[in-house]
Amino acid sequence: MPAGAVPMPAGAENRALRILLDDARAGRPVHVAHIPGRPGSEVPWPPWVRPPSSAPSPPGASAPLDHQAIAASHAQAGRNVIISTAAASGKSLGYLLPR
Description:
Elements: H1 15-22, H2 66-76, H3 91-96
């Protein structure tokens, strides 16, 4: 379990997880954890990204946040990724960066 992850209590309602478990066409979740919110921290651009001046980023952003770089690296490697964060937290960069 990732550092800071909180295990979901038995019987806790999680609609997205229930949909995955109930759909015979869906793959089985490998890991599910609730990770409490925290401020993002900037990390270096992944090595496969073009120079930062041409990488998509919001005004004022000089580097991706950790959740963006992690999601983008998984997507770049061909893995399925679900990223669930608050609105305007930069989820789009996580899936657009590998394109």
